[in-house]
Batch of 2 targets.
Target 1
Amino acid sequence: MNTRTQEVMHEFYHGLLINDGRRFRNWGSSRSTQPAVYVEPVSYADVQAVVRDTGQFPTPVRPVGSMLSVTETILNDGGTLLCTRKLDAIIGLETDEQGRQLVRVQAGCRLKKLNLWLQQQGWEIPFQAEIGEATVGSVAVGDTKESSLDGPGYFSSHVTAVLYIDENGSLRILSDRQDGDAFYEFKCSFGLSGIVVECVIEVRRASLCRANVTLQAFDSPQALTDGVLKLREECDALLAVVVLHQLACFAEQRYRADAGNVTPGSSQPACEQYRIAKRLAIQHGFDGGSLPQPQGIVFSRHDFVNEYWRPAETEHRLDFQYYEHDIGMLEQVIAESYRFTKAFEQKTGFTPTGWATYFVHRPERKLKPYGIYSGGAGISCSFDPIYCNPNEPLWQQFAREYNRLAIDTLGGNPSPIQTQWLQPGDVRIPRKLARSRFTTPYYQQFLV
Ligand SMILES: Cc1cc2nc3c(=O)[nH]c(=O)nc-3n(C[C@H](O)[C@H](O)[C@H](O)COP(=O)(O)OP(=O)(O)OC[C@H]3O[C@@H](n4cnc5c(N)ncnc54)[C@H](O)[C@@H]3O)c2cc1C
């Protein structure tokens, strides 16, 4: 597509349209919304028609992908919920003038589908988080975290161009080469600046990962912090799940292995056993049960991008909070969080099932001007409480109260799509990024 703006002459909408007042729920059934209209466009022209027709498609228009998000980000009562699931084509590989290898993909494509396709071609995106259902459009303009090998650890850093529908219904393109600041700001916009319909993402030759998995116990919060930092220093990327009230740490130490796109036979079936056990633990919100601790397994990380079934409300299922801290804060974060957790346990008997700990490399400020990872070059860590039932009142109380410690006292940055029960001021989104056609009351409260 060479033109920077493409107008479409017809205004007819062809995709699925539901306006019978039904409710739509997120993955964990902890949030639901009753839009006036729910649409699944089948073309970019459909998205344009929806945005332009304020009569048939009431304001605000909120784009969603797989509706996995745990927060109120998907809420749009009385508005138009636009789901991108049918815009999920992988258009193909291409090379740009700078010689970068890229993949062009539609916004509704799920990360698992993209990973499988790239695996077949011998390419990969460095961001290979466990979550396979998240859609490209959501993670191109939203917050993500992953302990990546040789990569920053958040998806949008790999996006080099976006095609989106603006508030007038025009198709627009922004890219790092031509638009600089405007492009980097758009990637911090959570769909408030426009609806992403297509992304261009930088890829690299597929590589293998070697991992050692251990479960270790410590005798103090300080020893736990030292242990986590040592585990991280020993490897190329660390994913840790800390059982804080027991001062234990489940650690997956990742090391670069050679080039390749399939798990070698020498590491099977150990890899598959570990993958299935870890996937189940994540699906069930780490509700107990032991995990294998394989040593020296070599695998393609494509295979570890998982698909999670949509759980029934009676099933244990993952719920979590997200906070970004600078790595220099980890000691204080663990010490204060331990104190808080033990006091809460004494008061109520409740503890989270685990704390996910990711390490992400922040870029220079220009490349990530707002929100998480915008602190300038450095290393961030997250320390995120996890539970196995989003609707458990004590978990909700824990998370609400912990927000004040993590955000106010420890200075953590929360995310409007990954941190629940936020208050105005907890997240600050520049007003200039938000168009009224796309701004729901949930996002309105964070505009500054
Ligand atoms: C079981 C499970 C595991 C998870 N694991 C991880 C993990 O390892 N790492 C991680 O980072 N996250 C993880 N998450 C969180 C998840 O990746 C994010 O919430 C992600 O945004 C979900 O993608 P989605 O397509 O479901 O987005 P949705 O929930 O459908 O949408 C979220 C928001 O994205 C924006 N949006 C969606 N589509 C578009 C578009 N086309 N254009 C513009 N804006 C858009 C809107 O603001 C929307 O409200 C996990 C969640 C679950 C439930």
Note: The chain is about 25% helix and 25% strand.
Target 2
Amino acid sequence: MNLDHKTILITGASQGIGAATARAFAAYPVNLALLARSQPLIDDLAAELNQRPGVQALPIVADVSRREDIEAAVAQTLDAFGQIDILVNNAGVGMSSPVGEIDYEKGRALFDVNFWGALMMTEAVLPSMRERKDGLIINISSIVGRRAMPGISVYCASKFALNAFSESIRVELKPDNVRVVSFYPGVTATNFGDNLLTGPTSVKGKGRAKVTSAEDVGKAIVKAAIKEPRDAYPTLFDRVFVWASTLAPWLMDRMLARY
Ligand SMILES: NC(=O)c1ccc[n+]([C@@H]2O[C@H](COP(=O)([O-])OP(=O)(O)OC[C@H]3O[C@@H](n4cnc5c(N)ncnc54)[C@H](OP(=O)(O)O)[C@@H]3O)[C@@H](O)[C@H]2O)c1
């Protein structure tokens, strides 16, 4: 999609990948709706991005696990900018969940954000996209939504569920010309690990994982918005990891058991 003068709604825009994505989109003359729960952070980010030429940024305080917040956020965006061209479903939380110790309440809360939040956001923006027969939805999954990792099964399951949703609606929405991109980051340098619903993460060897900066991931998300591939990865490593896991899952089991 040509980004000039488009309206982009980004969930989880207060920090990490969401904030970096907003900064990367702000290299173009765009309208940005920045959604998160932390008002001071999105107010500051909007003030910063409003300094960029041709950029209008609107902070929106909302919790994606609350349907009434989502409906109000979409209405606020449409009131301000008239349309929503791109939705980036980025808001997400993690949790450490070794089997036998899984906190069901926290697990449900995680699904409310990572899966149901993305689903409700999508349904809320769809009527306006369908009406215009144009729109793009970018769902921020994870490479662990393609190959689950030990110790974080609930988080991985939420991303597998998100992928299933993306795959299903990608075909369903073709007649409406609403496109769906699944985006799979690997380990990214954000505060994600500090914001876990239960933690700290018990994944051993985490320090040895290849880490990408949030800025590079944000730029890759903008590139995906322009090129609209079916699946997008910020790095070659992430792509090869998923490819190898699909080709030889048994080998990955062995490697992970050692790792
Ligand atoms: N970091 C990684 O290694 C990594 C790897 C693969 C995929 N991902 C995915 O990338 C996405 C962004 O993660 P990140 O690394 O940037 O994490 P992060 O730094 O912890 O940021 C998470 C963002 O989600 C928002 N958020 C959380 N719960 C929310 C809710 N209920 N309603 C609205 N916003 C909510 C947070 O804002 P507030 O707290 O202000 O609401 C924050 O802006 C997530 O979907 C994550 O699963 C991350």
Note: The longest helix spans residues 104-132.
